[in-house]
Amino acid sequence: MKLYTYYRSQASFRVRIALNLKNIAREDSYLHLEKGDQFAAEYRAVNPQMVVPTLLDGDVKLFQSLAILEYLNEKHPEPPLLPADREARAWVRGIALINAADSHPLIVPRVRHYLLDELQLGQDKMMGWIRHWLDAGLAAMEALLGEHKESGQFCHGERPTIAVIALVTQVTPAKTFDADLASYPRVMRIYDHCMAIRAFADAHPAKQPDAE
To answer: What would the pLDDT profile of 165-188 be if each residue is shown by its tens digit?
Structure first.
């Protein structure tokens, strides 16, 4: 498999975690999103949306991180990233979407550059925007974990799921942007537990060869 990635991309981080959990080898191709590598014609031909990650599995081209995670889970079912029962699967997907569909898309580089360059929002207001949406997602996760009887060391059950992958990739940018995490003890307990697991730790942005 070939993964087009950027060390700070939280969507790429999600896919790296899943590949590590399933012990799937890959070749990485690094794009520097802040320098605009994703807009080059060569990569636009790979992914017309000009975002990362993109995963190539032979002749199969995959895009959007949660779709990639579900593909990997179906092709390589062990260890499973989704629970066996329908209700639990829906809950796990819901937690994952808080990060992948609601919070993360609002803080990616192309949004930040639009706020700064086009809307002239200014650095302080832009940072406030980022922290607001990260906090909104973290607060929702914290409340939902408190209601969920199957949460403990992970979001659900005794093994990693796509929910905990998304939780980790919600906390990581919150740390990068100096958000106050004291209000999210359940979230942080799970985050700390996961980051002690090699599959998560090795996927961390700071551990990537293109990290700056």
So the answer is: 999 999 999 999 999 999 999 999
